[in-house]
Structures are given as C-alpha cells and as structure tokens.
Amino acid sequence: MSMSDTPSTQTVPSNGRPSLIVTLVAAAFFMENLDGTIIATALPQMAHSFGVHAVDLSIGITSYLLTLAVFIPISGWAADRFGVRNVFTAALAVFTLASVACGMTDGLVEFTAARVVQGIGGAMMVPVGRLAVLRATPKDDLMRAISIITWPGLVAPVIGPPLGGFITTYSSWRWIFYLNVPLGIVGMVLAWRFIRADRDTQKRPFDTLGFALCGVAGTAIMYAMELLGRSDAPWREALAFLAGGIAAGIAAFFHLRRDPHPVVDLSAFRVKTFAVAMGGGSLFRVSISAVPFLLPLMFQLGFGMNAFHSGLLTLVVFAGNLSMKLVTTPVMRRFGFRPVLLVNGALAALSIAAMSQLTAATPLVLMAVVLFASGLSRSLQFTAVNTLSFADVPKRQMSGASTLSSTLSQMTMGMGVALGAIAMRLAAWLHGHEAQSVTPADFSVAFLLVAAVGLVAIVDVFGLERDAGAHVSGHRRERT
C-alpha cells in the first residue's frame, strides 16, 4: 500500500486560529529563504574573519542549498511518523541553534558544518510548515493562505543582499545569524501552542534506498548546474555530475513508483493541476530566480552603480511583489487560474525581456517602472502556481504533494541562479570574449534567454480545463 492509500491525520489549529498558523509558517519560510541569500554581500568580511579568500566562502551558500535539496524529501515521512507539530517545532529549534553556531564560528570548516545543520532544520521547516497550513485551511480559503506563505520566496531573495550589506556595514556579519534567535524562539512557542498534536501517526518504514537516490540526484544536478555557471567551469566534470544526477533521478523515479512506502509519494502527479504546477511552474520559478542574481550584477558591473543604489533599485521589484498581494485574490476570482496563468505568465516573461533593453543611460524612473511591473507579474504568477498545486490534491495525499513541491521549489531556485550564470557565459561566447570580462551587452542577451525560459513555462497551462481550480479561486461561483 502506497502512502497515498493510507489515511492521513488532520492537523487543525486549536482555538480556530488558522490565520496565526499561516503567519507563523510564513515567518519561518522567510527565515529559511533569507539565509540562502543574505550572506552574499557579507562574504568579504566573513573571509577576513576566517583568514581565507572570499571565493572560498561560496561553500557556505552551496552547502546550505545542497543540504536542503538532500533532506527535504524525508520531511513528509518525518511529519507522518512523528507529527506535524513535533517536527515543525524541532526544525525551528535546530535552525535557531545552528544559526547561533554559524555566528560563533571562527573557521571555514566549522562554519560549513554549522550551515549543513542549519540546512537540515530548514529542510524540515519548509514542507512541514506548508503541510500544517494545508491541513488547517479550508479549500475556499486556500488562495489567501498560499498568497501569504509564498511571499517569503519572492521577497527574501530580493531584500537578502541589501539587508546583509547593511548589517555587515554598520555592525558585524555575525548578527545576520543572531537575528534568527528571537524569531526562532517565538516561532517555537507559537507552533507548540497553536498547532494541535496529531491524533495518531503513521508508523511506515523509512525508505532508505529512495532517500539515497533522491539525495544523490538532487545534489549532483544542483552541483553540475553550479559548475556550468562558473567562468572557469570544468566541462567534463560538470557534464559527468549532470549525467550521474539524471541517472540517479531516473532510478529514483522507478524505485518510488514500485516501493510500497516511498520516501516521496509521486501519486499527486496523477492530479492534472498539480502536474501542471510542477511542470511549467518549475520552469517559471527557474526564470524568476535568475532575476535577483542578474539585476545587481548588471547595475554594478554593467552600469557602474554602487552597491547602495543597486540595492535600492532591486527593492522596486519587492515593492511590486507586495503591491500585487493586495489584488491577487480579486483578480483570481474574476478571471480564474487558466487565463491568469496564460496572460500573466506571458507578461512576466515580457517584463524580464524588457530588462534586456535597460542601459546606463535609461532614466531611473523608467527603470523603476520596468522593475515594478516585473514584481507585479511575478508575484501574481507565483501565488497562482503555488495555489493551483494543491487545489485538487486530496487530503490524504497532501503530505506527499507538499514534499514534492518543496523539493522541486528548492531545486529550481538554485537552478535559477545557475541559469543566470550560464546565460552570462553564453552571452560572452556569442560576443566573442572571455567569460571573466563582462559587458552591458552580455546582460541584454542573458535576460532574453531567461525570458525565453519563462515563456516556455506557460505551454503546460494550455492543457488545463477552463474551470480548473475554480472551487479555490471562486471564479465559477461568481459567474453563476
């Protein structure tokens, strides 16, 4: 019997407080997403503290992201085995303690080890927190809940670098990690108080082989993408890791389909709306995740701006994200999932393409308009894709679907950064110069390539029914 065939416990908020759970999970997601990007601008100061070169500290980012990719697949099993409240609270505790350890380290080896432990905590927080929300929220309120818990994925990559730069400039890089402590403690108290303990748990065996295959596949593919994006990438090594990752992924797919108790339940892919959200939606996440990586580089290396001005312009995308949150639900209720994903998906791709036309001579007001429009469209698309993912998934399959969604989301975010780097390498090759040297024209080509990926992402949407997810968006009810 597969995981989808077993009864799932219902985790409901005590005292009827679903909004508090949604806010709590959104805050936890924000911490997890922020820690993936915030240290980028602190690397020089951290390198000085550790007595190493700044480039050597890239392992601090990579180790965190790779740990997330490896351990997210077991989060569903852990939640079913030990209970959502227990796992989510424990994940917050691990993440908080590891943050303290990161801030106290004085060497690269210890710091990397602390980041790995922090990644384990983050890997448990993301899907288990989402599962708590999905089980506690009625279908007709799912749009609002998903809209709230998805904003950290949009906001954190944008504000992470400038916030890290501010903390590093006016205090110490160690406070980047210490700031997680009060948030983590409050989160643990609220999680234990307001998420009701599961009435019973599923004592299914742990799928060791499935975990190993998923871990190897995720790690190898993400590492290969990172290698391909380096200016001095060893092509043979990168392709070898990519081939190995794909082979492990294929082996994992067949194993998970046959195993009676898979570490990741693939049955949710039989739900059309979930499959579309994971297919085209993953490509969309890859494309938008490349933008926060490319924009600061273009502003600083291409246009000659300083870090402060670059950060202020990047925050305009964040303003667009927040502004769209005010009208996301009415827009979805008026038009429904399919039209919004098609039209807005095209607009999101066009807004990225418009960035290719920016130059150092472009008026700042016009730059801000383009970035704000991009923030609007990507926020609406991000929320629509994430809500559609769970619109038709039965309660008994929520755990597996949440794990799948979190695994793919984390991998596509990492792949987005790699896509940006690969696009810059291709642009340098097209312009006939070395990848180490960057020209403004390279960014134009890179943004066009990223926009093309975003445009391909909407192809899947054409296969949706016209009223797909209407019971969640409210579109069908309003028409009748």
How does this structure look, described?
The chain folds into 3 domains: 1-200, MFS general substrate transporter like domains (Growth Hormone, Chain: A, Up-down Bundle); 208-258; 267-480, Growth Hormone, Chain: A (Up-down Bundle). It is 74% helix and 0% strand. The protein contains 20 helices and no strands. α5 (84-104) packs antiparallel against α9. The longest helix is centred in the last third of the chain and has 33 residues, at 398-430. 54% of the residues are buried.
Mean pLDDT: 81
Fold-level CATH name of the largest domain: Growth Hormone, Chain: A
The profile of the biggest β sheet is: none
How does the overall form come out from the CA principal axes?
Answer: globular
GO cellular component, one term: plasma membrane
Protein name: Drug resistance transporter, EmrB/QacA subfamily
GO molecular function, one term: transmembrane transporter activity
Subcellular location: Cell membrane
Chart the SSEs and their pairings.
Elements (H helix, E strand, L loop, with lengths): L17 H17 L8 H8 L7 H14 L3 H8 L1 H21 L3 H29 L5 H29 L4 H4 L1 H15 L13 H22 L5 H24 L13 H31 L4 H19 L2 H8 L1 H19 L8 H28 L6 H33 L9 H17 L13 H4 L1 H5 L1
Short description:
Helix content is 74%, strand content 0%.
What are the salient characteristics of this protein?
cell membrane; globular; 3 domains; MFS; EmrB-like; mainly alpha; Growth Hormone, Chain: A; transmembrane; membrane
